[in-house]
Design brief:
By secondary structure, the chain is an alpha/beta fold. The chain has a single domain, classed as Isochorismatase-like (Rossmann fold). Helices cover 25% and strands 21% of the residues. It is built from 5 helices and 6 strands; from the N terminus they run βαββαβαβαβα. Strand 1, helix 1 and strand 2 form a beta-alpha-beta unit. The relative contact order is 0.20.
Length: 181
């Protein structure tokens, strides 16, 4: 069984958001198209408390139950079967979807007999990377959809370093066209 994981495609990570990622909105049409081709569609959300050590590093973003933490209206979220909330503790960064506090992602994937996990979302060099690394540690065959992710790139080239590290650990880099053909 295959599943699509959409990592943190939330208003605050889109251009003009409080932690806007350049061209973050450009992956939404690709993700919407991909959603139609997977029997299982999951998503993670940063879901931070108002005060957290995470905001010592980053601008305030994705505070639980705010417009910034919501999915953008352009995302076809009706097909998302489960959302995994992360970064919910004031002492936790919660980069990986596998750190979700409302439900255990690895257990959920096993319960649904998922053996292949396809990952899209924001940010290549942080939450996508952490989620993919954890998926690999949990022994899921893991694909990174390179045209359906966007980086923060705090330092130029962080996205390339992240993808190289993921590939070195066993992730398979593909494009949406590889899936849709």
């Amino acid at each position: 069984m295959k599943a699509l994981l959409i990592v943190d495609v939330q208003n605050d990570f889109l251009p003009n958001g409080s932690l806007g990622v350049k061209d973050g909105d450009k992956i939404i049409p690709i993700i919407n198209h991909l959603i139609e081709h997977f029997p299982i569609v999951l998503a993670s959300k940063d879901w931070h408390p108002e005060k957290t050590v995470h905001f010592d590093i980053w601008p305030i973003h994705c505070v639980a139950d705010t417009k910034g933490a919501a999915f953008p209206s352009e995302l076809n979220d009706k097909k998302i079967q489960q959302i995994f909330y992360k970064g919910t503790d004031n002492k936790d960064d919660g980069y990986s979807a596998f750190e979700a506090t409302n439900k255990n992602l690895a257990a959920y994937l096993r319960e649904k007999h998922v053996s292949e996990l396809y990952v899209s979302g924001i940010a290549t060099d942080y939450c996508v990377k952490a989620s993919v690394m954890d998926a690999l540690k949990e022994n899921f065959k893991t694909y990174v959809i390179t045209d359906a992710i966007k980086p923060v790139n705090q330092n130029p080239g962080d996205d390339i370093k992240a993808l190289n590290a993921l590939e070195k650990e066993g992730a398979i880099l593909i494009t949406s066209q590889d899936i849709l053909k």
